[in-house]
Design brief:
single chain; alpha/beta; Rossmann fold; 2 domains; eight-stranded mixed sheet
Length: 342
């Protein structure tokens, strides 16, 4: 999505260079390019429609000031709305609970839940200085329990043993009791995934949520799923009170649509992003920064902000009226213009 959207908007800025103001016509030209880029990036159609409507409303109310052209102003509007769609800024993980703070990891098989559980363990240990215990409640995938044991060790956390013949509910309660008795700050519960949404999976994870009462219920989703991520997100949102999203494989996503779609469908903020396969490859998700990466036009956005901040809109309007009236441009006007450039 990044390169496609950047290319389209770059062409638009060039074609609008000779235009003096934002009109219904040039806004429509821009929105057509943005709409195509988002749809090609696998952003869900309802999300695209809502996004386009918001951009149009904001763009038509924008003033073009200083040396800017309408294309540059419109790019700035798109960037801000991208950030707003993905949550604006950083959504911190919530650990405000009587220890241990329980974090429930949910998602489909193949999304990277187990690896992400270990990555989050490392993050909490190194960045938040927490004592972390992990446990696998996945009794269906033979290697899941051993995999979590291995990656938890790599992350520097502690792992609670479980067996495939146990019930997920019993595993979770035993781990919670152990975490309380040994003064752990955080308990991370890795749940079973499926290749597709099914009633058994949802009933099981709803039961785990009920007995654990987690402070965070994080939906782990593969950023490369595109439209499929939307269907998964809807199903988990209906089953669980999701508090956050972790996007995995964001480094390999050439389309990027999931980041926009999942946030809007679930209503939950994107809290982390998996950016590599390494155990430390988990970043706190910054919506503003990610919007800048997607757009790839930070120089134009920064220019718009700088020019807008330095221009006194009232003075600029008064100057325009003076010139229209035929009063001319004198040395005092020139001095005022120079002062605004400082």
């Amino acid at each position: 999505m990044a390169s496609n959207l950047t290319d389209r908007l770059s062409r638009l800025v060039k074609t609008m260079r000779g235009q003096a103001r934002i009109t219904e016509s040039n806004v429509q030209d821009m929105l057509r390019e943005v709409r195509m880029a988002l749809l090609e990036a696998d952003v869900a159609l309802p999300v695209v429609r809502d996004f386009i409507a918001r951009v149009k409303e904001k763009a038509l109310g924008q003033e073009v000031v200083g040396s800017l052209n309408p294309g540059q102003v419109l790019v700035s509007v798109v960037q801000k709305e991208l950030a707003a769609t993905m949550g604006e800024g950083v959504a911190d993980i919530n650990l405000a609970a009587q220890p241990p703070a329980v974090i429930l990891m949910a998602g489909l098989q193949g999304a990277g839940k187990t690896t992400t559980t270990a990555k989050l363990t490392k993050h909490l240990i190194e960045k938040r200085k927490k004592k972390v215990l992990t446990v696998s409640a996945d009794v269906y995938r033979p290697a899941a329990i051993e995999q979590l044991k291995t990656v938890t060790k790599q992350a520097g956390g502690e792992w609670f043993p479980s067996e495939p013949n146990q019930k997920p509910r019993d595993i979770a309660l035993a781990a919670l009791d152990h975490a309380k008795r040994h003064y752990f700050d955080v308990l991370l519960v890795d749940t079973a995934g499926r290749l597709a949404i099914d009633d058994v999976l949802m009933a099981e994870i709803k039961e785990l949520h009920a007995v654990l009462n987690p402070v965070e219920t994080l939906f782990v989703v593969d950023a490369m799923q595109g439209q499929d991520a939307v269907n998964t997100a809807k199903a988990f949102k209906e089953a669980l009170p999701l508090t956050g999203v972790i996007l995995t494989k964001l480094d390999g996503d050439s389309r990027g649509g999931a980041a926009l779609s999942v946030r809007q469908i679930t209503g939950a903020p994107i809290k982390f992003a998996g950016v590599s396969e390494k155990i430390d490859g988990l970043e706190v998700f910054d919506a503003d920064r990610h919007a800048g990466r997607v757009l790839g036009m930070g120089d134009i956005v920064a220019l718009v902000e700088q020019v807008t901040a330095n221009v006194d809109m009232a003075s600029a309007q008064a100057m325009a009226e003076k010139l229209k009236s035929g009063s001319g441009f004198d040395l005092n006007d020139f001095l005022q213009q120079i002062a605004q450039m400082k």
